[in-house]
């Protein structure tokens, strides 16, 4: 879309908002005045809105802040400027704007939350508690303030008020459980061993934030010299969840097995940061409240800049809102020694792939697999090679992965076996590929991908056609909107010389997967068989625009020169 279209859209949105009862003072003043200063105010507001529209957080913050400075009685505009400063990571401007808003409106909730959090961070606990006391009516900010206020009481060793505050966070059952976990941590920090045990048991039963709960409990058990119990519980949890190969769970297990210390009890600020981090994705983003999730993560990082889990989750959120540059900057700041370095590097590689810089992505995969070899890094490297159609190098990785897995592990995760089958097939090792696909289907009879791949290849080879048709039809029932599977059915009809039926299915497949070179190429073939030569040529030419494999490209080029008879495509 051209720039002028973006600006027109922004202006239309502004005009619509001016016509509602929710218009800001800035907009009202502009529409009713002709002073130059009003034009500057509206210009800044429009520029901020446009920056928001195109996800440019620095520019959004700059222009909304300038607009608010011109209309500092407009608390609605101030709130927008405050949110923009925070999500741009500009803490100085965030605190300045919060102070400006608070001087105008003592009850504005986000300003209270930010100022209260700053007071807590700086050890001014009484002031933090005063700022975080008012009932603002803003549920999201109320939850944030309850978490910080509770930990400010815990920092003052006022456990009675800490418990009460955590119990009254509000927000429903999720936050009731989150408050219970904070009580367990606060009891542990205060040295109340029996109360901490009971509270941790309740936190485990709730099922909320299971990793954070186990880590916190392990630190508590370690603090009272119950390392054997900590190790036993962590190993049981790891086994139940597929055996962690990296991350803090694995680090704790390895340290305890070696008789080495793990992290001690965390400070109230560190615990408050973790309490803000957990609901960011688990609750807010999960409920499509990304702005709230980002605010919680940004606030967590103001309290503990070294909390890499918050940085990683914030990076993921930024990626999902097309702010990849900001995400990459966060990832770059995570140290190689971090518990989250594997996830960080995999995220970086995915950004490089999304930018079509495959070589850089592969460098990241190769490096992390070399420095932190594990099932996860090997599988990621194998899949990256598979996506790049480098089957020769992907095959030994998947072969090693499958051979390293027990039968029980393969039953829990058939993907390495399935991908090994693809590599075998592409490397012309059909007997091995067929065995892998059959083994997958023996474990998962309703695996649509395996049904389709085996059925399609049998059809293409002219083998087991009755069984192949049954497999493909079953796959379509499981995944009726899959263009690849509908293509398989069309290709099966084509191979049997049933061109009219093939045409129907392949046209449907192209609708479902309009950018698949393989499917478009197949449609061209069936048009040729039906005598529709011009349409066939058109489809073959289109297929060349959608990144066909080298083998497909060569065949299509031959067909464009000499028709279908120029290549060996047996009916």
Explain what you see.
This protein has 571 residues and is mainly α. The chain has helices at residues 3-18, 25-32, 36-53, 57-70, 75-87, 91-104, 109-121, 125-131, 139-155, 159-167, 173-190, 193-206, 210-223, 227-240, 248-257, 268-284, 290-303, 308-320, 324-332, 341-354, 358-371, 375-387, 391-404, 407-412, 415-426, 430-443, 448-461, 465-478, 483-495, 499-512, 517-529, 533-544, 550-562. The longest helix is centred in the first third of the chain and has 18 residues, at 36-53. It is elongated, with a radius of gyration of 30 Å.
Summarize the structure.
The protein has 33 helices and no strands. The protein has 571 residues and is mainly α.
Topology:
Elements: H1 3-18, H2 25-32, H3 36-53, H4 57-70, H5 75-87, H6 91-104, H7 109-121, H8 125-131, H9 139-155, H10 159-167, H11 173-190, H12 193-206, H13 210-223, H14 227-240, H15 248-257, H16 268-284, H17 290-303, H18 308-320, H19 324-332, H20 341-354, H21 358-371, H22 375-387, H23 391-404, H24 407-412, H25 415-426, H26 430-443, H27 448-461, H28 465-478, H29 483-495, H30 499-512, H31 517-529, H32 533-544, H33 550-562
Helix pairs in contact: 1-3, 2-3, 3-4, 4-5, 5-6, 6-7, 7-8, 7-9, 8-9, 9-10, 9-11, 9-16, 10-11, 11-12, 11-13, 11-16, 12-13, 13-14, 14-15, 16-17, 16-18, 17-18, 18-19, 20-21, 21-22, 22-23, 23-25, 25-26, 26-27, 27-28, 27-29, 28-29, 29-30, 30-31, 31-32, 32-33
């Amino acid at each position: 879309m051209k720039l002028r279209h973006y600006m027109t859209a922004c202006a239309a949105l502004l005009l619509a908002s001016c016509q509602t009862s929710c218009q800001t003072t800035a907009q009202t003043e502009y529409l009713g005045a002709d002073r130059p200063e009003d034009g500057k105010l509206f210009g800044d507001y429009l520029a901020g809105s446009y920056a928001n529209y195109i996800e440019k957080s620095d520019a959004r913050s700059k222009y909304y802040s300038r607009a608010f400075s011109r209309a500092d009685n407009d608390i609605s505009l101030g709130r927008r400027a405050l949110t923009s400063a925070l999500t741009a990571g500009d803490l100085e401007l965030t605190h300045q704007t919060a102070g400006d808003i608070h001087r105008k409106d003592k009850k504005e909730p986000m300003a209270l939350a930010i100022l209260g959090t700053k007071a807590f961070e700086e050890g001014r606990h009484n002031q933090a508690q005063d700022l975080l006391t008012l009932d603002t009516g803003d549920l999201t900010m109320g939850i944030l303030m309850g978490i910080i206020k509770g930990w400010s009481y815990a920092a003052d060793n006022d456990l009675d008020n800490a418990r009460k505050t955590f119990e009254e966070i509000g927000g429903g059952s999720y936050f009731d459980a989150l408050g219970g976990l904070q009580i367990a941590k606060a009891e542990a920090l205060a040295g109340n061993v029996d109360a901490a045990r009971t509270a941790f048991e309740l936190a485990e039963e709730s099922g909320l934030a299971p990793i954070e709960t186990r880590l916190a409990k392990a630190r508590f058990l370690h603090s009272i010299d119950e390392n054997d119990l900590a190790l036993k519980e962590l190993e049981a949890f790891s086994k139940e969840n597929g055996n962690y190969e990296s991350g803090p769970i694995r680090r704790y297990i390895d340290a305890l097995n070696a008789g080495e210390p793990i992290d001690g009890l965390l400070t109230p600020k560190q615990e408050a940061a973790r309490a803000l981090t957990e609901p960011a994705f688990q609750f807010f983003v999960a409920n499509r409240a990304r702005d709230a999730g980002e605010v919680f993560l940004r606030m967590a990082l103001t309290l503990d800049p070294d909390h890499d889990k918050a940085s990683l989750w914030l990076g993921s959120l930024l990626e999902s809102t097309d702010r990849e540059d900001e995400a990459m900057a966060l990832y770059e700041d995570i140290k190689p020694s971090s518990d989250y370095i594997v996830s960080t590097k995999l995220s970086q590689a995915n950004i490089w792939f999304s930018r079509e810089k495959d070589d850089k992505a592969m460098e990241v995969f190769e490096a992390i697999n070399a420095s932190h070899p594990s099932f996860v890094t090997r599988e990621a490297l194998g899949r990256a090679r598979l996506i790049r159609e480098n089957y020769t190098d992907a095959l030994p990785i998947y072969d090693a992965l499958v051979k390293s897995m027990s039968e029980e592990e393969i039953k829990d995760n058939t993907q390495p076996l399935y991908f090994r089958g693809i590599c075998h097939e592409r490397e012309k090792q059909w007997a091995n590929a067929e065995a892998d696909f059959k083994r997958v289907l023996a474990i998962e009879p309703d695996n649509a991908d395996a049904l389709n791949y085996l059925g399609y290849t049998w059809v293409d080879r002219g083998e087991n056609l009755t069984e192949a048709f049954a497999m493909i039809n079953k796959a379509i029932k499981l995944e009726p909107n899959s263009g690849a599977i509908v293509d398989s059915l069309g290709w099966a009809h084509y191979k049997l010389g049933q061109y009219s039926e093939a045409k129907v299915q392949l046209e449907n497949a192209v609708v479902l997967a309009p950018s698949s070179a393989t499917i478009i190429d197949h449609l061209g073939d069936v048009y040729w068989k039906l005598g529709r030569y011009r349409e066939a040529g058109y489809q073959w030419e289109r297929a060349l625009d959608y990144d066909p494999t080298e083998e497909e490209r060569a065949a299509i080029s031959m067909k464009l020169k000499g028709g279908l008879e120029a290549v060996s495509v047996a009916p």
